[in-house]
Amino acid sequence: MNYCLNSTELECLLLLHLEDKAIENVTLKSLYDNAIQWQDKLLCLTFSFARILERQRGSASLTQTMIPELFSMPEKMFIDIQECSEDFVDYMLRHEHSGEIDLEISLLTVARKLSEHCYGKNTLRD
Question: In a structure prediction context, what are the per-residue pLDDT tens digits for the chain, which is 126 residues long?
């Protein structure tokens, strides 16, 4: 199973590693445990991470430790950090974002679709 983390969920995982702050959301805790055991893949977007850094900008020391922590997470668990590349942004502007829903929700939906590959069907990765 693939699960796309929103910025709040990603922040919880980062704070768990950096400040030993417990995960209170039972579903997120279960997803995290499965990712630690390499059973389920978590996805996160650099866009969501940028939102976290923006919220935490008052704490320079925390944001400086978050950056290496995020990029070391794939060594510790089943997580895929997806860059919002030019092609990704182009796709979003052309096909997905209507302006009526939150941009982060749209991005997470597209990231999930991009991570799925169904043999015999046309997907976004084909």
Answer: 788 898 899 999 999 989 989 999 999 999 999 999 999 999 898 888 888 888 888 888 888 898 899 999 999 999 999 887 777 666 666 665 555 566 667 667 766 766 665 545 554 444
- The pTM for the full model equals 0.70
Angle, nearest 10°, between helix axes 26-36 and 7-19?
70
Q: Which tokens hold the place of 4? A: 């796309």
Between CA 5 and CA 11 the distance in angstroms is 9
Tell me the three-class secondary structure of the chain, residue by residue: CEEECCHHHHHHHHHHHHHCCCCCCHHHHHHHHHHHCCCCEEEEEHHHHHHHHHHCCCCHHHHHHHHHHHHHHHHCCCEEEECCCHHHHHHHHHHHCCCCCCHHHHHHHHHHHHHCCCCCCCCCCC
